[in-house]
Amino acid sequence: MFITLEGIDGSGKSTQAELLTENIRSARGEEGVIWTKEPGGWPGGDSLRKVLLEGSLHHPLTEVFLFLADRCEHVEQVILPALAAGKIVVCERYSDSTVAYQWGGRGIERGKIEGLLSWASFPSPDITFWIDLPAEKAYDRMVSRGSPRDRLESEGLSFLSRVRQGFCTLAEENPDRIVPVDGDGRADLIASEIYRKVEEYFFP
Ligand code: TYD
After folding, report:
1. SS3 sequence, 22-59?
2. Residue 199 C-alpha to ligand 1 middle, in angstroms?
3. Whole domain around residue 18: which residue ranges?
4. Which CATH number does the domain housing residue 66 bear?
5. What pLDDT sits at residue 149?
6. Sheet holding 2-6, edge to edge
7. Cβ atoms < 10 Å from Cβ of 4
8. Whose CA is nearest to atom 14 of ligand 1?
9. Strand partners, 132
10. From the CA of 76, how far away is ligand 1's center (Å)?
11. pLDDT value of position 50
12. Structurally, how many domains does the chain consist of?
């Protein structure tokens, strides 16, 4: 069972991924679930994550290729083995982020990105929770948190708005997989809503 969580920076997706993992753990035991994230969620992935976030890349396609390379190792070393062992995988960010950020945010041709994604044949999530928050609110949260302004996050409000629009488009196109969740509320209530949907979906 492969669950992904998506959303713009500051949407609360990390908190929700953590709470979902804890909820599944309490219900199904420590061994039944793993939490992981992109970029960098595999042994050795920290170096790639660092390159992606530190802001030293100039050519727009370098970023695309590195996110995909990161996913190749993440899928091979972490996601597929966990799924093969019968575990539930909770993964923060995945291919929807590549489309929303690199197409929606950066404006790289969508067909090219989709072509690379389909060539890589990454396993598809069973269900994706898109934690949606207006870009202004997400941005304010990031500012009040004093978020370090790494390169991707320092692109500002209009970048975040375009990325959010990218997620909107993906959600409209994939209503059977992507569940939009209103991220503007109490974290514990949002977590219960997500967990309820997971139970309905996987353990009807
Ligand atoms: P994330 O780890 O969620 O940020 P943090 O934990 O530092 O708040 O993601 C890092 C950034 O990488 C985020 O801005 C989104 C971006 N990203 C892409 O642009 N494309 C991708 O395919 C992925 C997986 C992430």
Report:
1. HHHHHHHCHHHEEEEECCCCCCCHHHHHHHHHHCCCCC
2. 27
3. 2-202
4. 3.40.50.300
5. 60
6. 33-37, 88-92, 2-6, 127-132, 178-182
7. 28
8. 152
9. 182
10. 20
11. 95
12. 1
> How far is residue 151's CA from residue 106's CA, in Å, rounded to a whole number?
12
Angstrom CA distances, 72 to 67, 75, 103, stand at 9, 5, 20
C-alpha distances in Å from residue 55, one per residue of 62, 64, 153, 167:
12, 14, 10, 23
What is residue 144's predicted lDDT score, i.e. its pLDDT? 83
Q: What is the pLDDT along the chain (204 residues), one digit of tens a residue?
A: 999 999 999 899 999 999 999 999 998 888 899 999 999 999 999 999 999 988 889 998 999 999 999 999 999 999 999 999 999 999 999 999 999 999 999 999 999 999 999 999 999 999 999 999 999 999 888 888 777 665 455 678 899 999 999 999 999 999 999 999 999 999 999 999 999 999 998 777
Q: Which atom of ligand 1 is nearest to the CA of 92?
A: 3
* Cβ of 42 less than 6 Å from ligand 1: no
pLDDT of residue 109: 97
Q: Going by DSSP bridges, is the β-strand pair 178-182/127-132 parallel, antiparallel, or unpaired?
A: parallel
Q: Contact, 157 vs 107, CB < 8 A?
A: no
DSSP string, 75-116: IIIIIHHHHHTT-EEEEES-HHHIIIIIIIIT---HHHHHHH
| Sign of the C-alpha dihedral computed for residues 4, 8, 10 and 11 taken in this order | negative
CB of 122 shorter than 6 A to ligand 1: no
| 39 in contact with ligand 1, CB cutoff 6 A | yes
For residue 151, the model assigns a pLDDT of 47
